[in-house]
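FAQ

Q: What does a record look like?
A: Structure on top, sequence underneath. For example:
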């Protein structure tokens, strides 16, 4: 979609004569690239510290299963809140303003995390989750606005470049924030996360002139009645939550039951959202068909993220307790394992993006269904590899080489490149017009569903230790079977997708 913009501003598709590009893409991609890089710097720095801080004697000193449950629920809520973040953009602020507000809330959250008390720490987690929800879906939507419609051949490549920005921030965060948090002071590490987000917000505000005008548009402005209804429902839910958690606190059941309602919500809400969209009679037959095809990708993504997101909990705790953390005579902090995935992404993403384009020009690019099947197979293989050091430490004790985790992260990265940037792109292609910003939130609800399963399994009610051979075998088998299922059904899914590949 081409637009006439103000002087000095890049067009969505081909830049104006003499205009600058960003590796052949619209100039606005650089602004969004840098904003997301700093936001992910703050997010992944805190993410690298979180499970370690929760189990550390100098931190919360919790059991590993409890730390995994809290970590999983927190991750689920970050992506669950992307849905109302998209709704706020569609109804009230537009994507551009919503991103600026979200970044401000994230900064406040990290500052609150830096205060050395338990209540403020958990309040900080809530603020970071809310701010991330406002920001994440909308900044990805603005990337889609930069291109000339869903069929622009540069679109997948643009999202892959955007994905490099995510991973550049994610790579630097554990090396800086993680090192300071583990080696100097936990709360100083959280302070550095706030600084990173502040840099991202400043860069975004300076570069907004390069974005598409569409990013400022409120797609479906809320009526006064809708605003009143939203306020009323929000207050009712807030009161209900306050009453529930007050009762849990008074009865002494807060520690055992506080996570369960949130975990269940993380499973129920994604299903309810998809059902509501499918029952929307305002959608055309083509949109309904695409939505049916999208459900397949949603379920597969949930399975993928259920396993993948354990790299920050199950794998990180294994790295802390069962690996030497020594390589070529150099000892490194456990949080540095979180830099493996992003450095692999940055190395491999350009190769994969070029491969898709090369295959596309020859009419041989795999369909989205085949790419997803590959990702599920690879994530299953990664846990099959993880099984080997698990069995070794279980039978012989001691610590294993960190190269085992390097291998696991490498395989997961290849799988991620077959799913995540492709999923972002296909979401913008298949989104019904009515749910343009909200649909990106739906994509992130797949992460919510996957992490909620992990949170439920490790909750006090079930107390499953995901760091055992039996758990790893079951998860690996589920992933491989799901990959085989979508591969066998690829023709049916392609029919549902219509013109979208």
């Amino acid at each position: 979609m081409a637009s006439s913009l103000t002087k000095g501003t890049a067009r969505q598709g081909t830049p104006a004569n003499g205009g600058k590009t960003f590796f052949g893409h619209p100039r606005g991609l650089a602004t969004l690239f840098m904003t997301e890089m700093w936001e992910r710097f703050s997010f992944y720095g805190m993410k690298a510290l979180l499970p370690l801080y929760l189990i550390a004697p100098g931190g919360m000193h919790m059991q590993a299963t409890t730390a995994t449950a809290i970590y999983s629920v927190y991750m689920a809520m970050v992506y669950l809140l992307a849905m109302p973040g998209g709704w706020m953009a569609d109804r009230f602020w537009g994507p551009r303003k919503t991103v600026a507000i979200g970044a401000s809330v994230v900064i406040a959250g990290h500052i609150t995390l830096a205060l050395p008390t338990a209540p403020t720490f958990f309040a900080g987690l809530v603020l970071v989750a809310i701010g991330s929800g406002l920001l994440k879906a909308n900044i990805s939507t603005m990337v889609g606005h930069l291109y000339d419609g869903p069929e622009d051949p540069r679109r997948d490549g643009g999202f892959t470049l955007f994905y490099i920005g995510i991973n550049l921030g994610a790579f630097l965060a554990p090396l800086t924030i993680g090192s300071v948090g583990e080696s100097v002071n936990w709360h100083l590490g959280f302070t550095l996360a706030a600084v990173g987000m502040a840099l991202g917000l400043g860069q975004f505000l300076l570069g907004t002139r390069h974005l598409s005008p569409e990013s400022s548009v409120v797609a479906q402005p809320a009526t006064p009645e809708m605003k009143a209804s939203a306020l009323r429902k929000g207050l009712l839910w807030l009161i209900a939550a306050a009453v529930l958690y007050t009762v849990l606190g008074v009865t002494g059941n807060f520690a055992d039951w506080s996570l369960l309602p949130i975990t269940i919500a993380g499973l129920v809400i994604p299903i309810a959202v998809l059902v509501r969209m499918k029952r929307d009679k305002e959608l055309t037959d083509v949109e309904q068909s695409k939505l049916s095809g999208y459900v397949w990708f949603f379920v597969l993504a949930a399975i993928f993220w259920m396993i993948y997101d354990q790299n920050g909990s199950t794998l990180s705790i294994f790295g802390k307790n069962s690996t030497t953390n020594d390589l070529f005579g150099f000892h490194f902090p456990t949080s540095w394992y979180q830099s493996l995935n992003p450095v692999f992404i940055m190395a491999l993403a350009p190769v994969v993006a070029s491969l898709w384009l090369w295959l596309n020009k020859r009419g041989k690019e795999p369909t989205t269904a085949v790419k997803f099947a590959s990702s599920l197979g690879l994530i299953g293989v990664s846990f099959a590899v993880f099984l080997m050091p698990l069995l070794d430490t279980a039978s012989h004790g001691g610590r294993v080489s960190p190269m085992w985790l390097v291998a696991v992260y490498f395989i997961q990265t290849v799988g991620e490149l077959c799913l995540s940037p492709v999923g972002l792109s296909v979401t913008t292609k298949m989104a019904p017009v009515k749910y343009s910003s909200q649909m990106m939130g739906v994509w992130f609800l797949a992460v919510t569903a996957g992490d909620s399963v992990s949170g439920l399994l490790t909750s006090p009610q079930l107390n499953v230790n995901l760091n055992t051979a039996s758990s790893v075998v079951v998860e690996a088998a589920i992933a491989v079977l799901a990959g085989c299922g979508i591969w066998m059904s690829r023709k049916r899914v392609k029919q549902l997708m219509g013109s979208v590949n």
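Q: Is there anything notable about this one?
A: The longest strand covers residues 21-22.
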